[in-house]
């Protein structure tokens, strides 16, 4: 059994799948989390996430809090914990290689599939949904040779 680790990230849940949003300060984690919650996802944690044996939860002091820049800190309903299905590493368009890598990598902290995601894209929420669908086997990420 691994010891709990607290990381600088945010987390949302769709049904039984958690998506961990990671990136540097100012990358757009809280803003994307707000859009995910608005789209029907559950808030799990904002700003700090406790990761333990593949599960994500909020540190007790931050449970149910979401920081919305320009408005303030909002208290809202949240899910106590969720199993992490995938990690979205938030990058700017300059953070992408000239060509995106084929398929996901593997996140070092969680061991879960890791995808690069530009949170400023209008399709960012839909892309999170596709990532979770691929991880769950409801959609299939094809290799270049399969197209």
From TrEMBL:
The keyword ATP-binding does not apply. Pfam families: Hpr_kinase_C. SUPFAM superfamilies: PEP carboxykinase-like. The keyword Lyase does not apply. Residues 5-75 form the HPr kinase/phosphorylase C-terminal domain. Gene3D superfamilies: P-loop containing nucleotide triphosphate hydrolases. Transmembrane segments: none annotated. Keywords: Transferase. GO terms for biological process: regulation of carbohydrate metabolic process. GO terms for molecular function: ATP binding; phosphorelay sensor kinase activity. InterPro entries: Hpr_kin/Pase_C, P-loop_NTPase. This is Phosphotransferase. The lineage of its organism: Bacteria, Pseudomonadati, Pseudomonadota, Alphaproteobacteria, Acetobacterales.
């Amino acid at each position: 059994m691994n010891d709990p680790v607290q990381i600088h990230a945010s987390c949302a849940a769709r049904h039984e799948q958690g998506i961990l949003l990671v990136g540097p300060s100012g990358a757009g984690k809280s803003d994307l989390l707000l859009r995910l919650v608005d789209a029907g996802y559950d808030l799990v944690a904002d700003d700090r996430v406790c990761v333990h044996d593949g599960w994500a939860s909020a540190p007790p002091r931050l449970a149910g809090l979401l920081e919305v820049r320009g408005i303030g800190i909002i208290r809202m309903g949240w899910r106590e914990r969720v199993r992490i299905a995938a990690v979205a590493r938030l990058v700017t368009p300059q953070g992408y290689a000239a060509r995106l890598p084929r398929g996901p990598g593997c996140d070092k902290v969680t061991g879960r599939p890791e995808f690069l995601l530009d949170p400023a894209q209008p399709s960012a929420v839909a892309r999170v949904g596709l990532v979770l669908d691929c991880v769950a086997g409801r959609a299939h990420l094809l290799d270049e040779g399969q197209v």
